[in-house]
Amino acid sequence: MKKFLFIVLTAFAMHSFAAEDFTLWASETVDGPYVGDVVAISSEVTNNSGFNAIELIVDYESFTPDGANAPADYKLYAIIEQKMAGIWYPAGYQFRGLKSSESATKKILIMAPNVPDFNGAENDMYVGNIPIASQSYNTGVLGSTFRVKIVADNSGISDLTSVTFSAYGRKFNQ
């Protein structure tokens, strides 16, 4: 499986000729309560160059409560949304929610026309036994406008009260 992912990622690199980097948030802290479980919505990003793929990195720097040392009944998710006919819709997402710093707190979302279908399974990356990042592969084509939404699936009495995160990425052609 790891060799297959290496081959797929190498193929991405070889077919990506031009790219544009972007930053959405840099160490942004958002305190609750959150209306409709929406933690944050980025500004709109235009894709004037017509790139067909995106790699988005969301780095959850800290969150309270942290399930590593306190009860936490929420899960944090990042969603790539695109605009069609003036309406925002989800186009790509972070497969597995986050509530503990013992999990990989850096989430990498890749949305491209020709990515393998892992049926919602994240590819975890480790250094030794320490999780450093998780990748979610979404099949799709980047449209002319997109944004990123961070949501908290609050489902209990130990809901998210604060989160600090950064988000940045790259638009490219596959």
Summarize the structure.
Helices cover 8% and strands 51% of the residues. It contains one helix and eleven strands; from the N terminus they run H-E-E-E-E-E-E-E-E-E-E-E.
Strand content: over 45%
Please state the overall shape, judged from the principal axes of the Cα atoms.
globular
CATH class category: Mainly Beta
| CATH topology grouping | Jelly Rolls
**Rg calc:** 16 Å
Distance between the termini: 21 Å
Number of domains: 1
Count helical runs: 1
Order of helices and strands: HEEEEEEEEEEE
- Spans with pLDDT under 50 lasting ≥5 residues? 4-10
CATH architecture: Sandwich
Strand order of the largest sheet: 1-11-4-7-9-8
Query: pLDDT average, as an integer?
Result: 90
Strand-pairing-aware structural class = mainly beta
Total E-strand runs:
11
Can you walk me through this structure?
- The chain is mainly β.
- The chain has one domain: Jelly Rolls (Sandwich).
- The chain is 8% helix and 51% strand.
- The chain is built from 1 helix and 11 strands.
- The strands form 2 sheets. A 6-stranded mixed beta sheet has the order 1-11-4-7-9-8, with no helix packed on it. Strands 2, 3, 5, 6 and 10 form a 5-stranded antiparallel beta sheet that branches.
- Strand 8 and strand 9 form a beta hairpin.
- It is globular.
- The protein starts with a helix and ends with a strand.
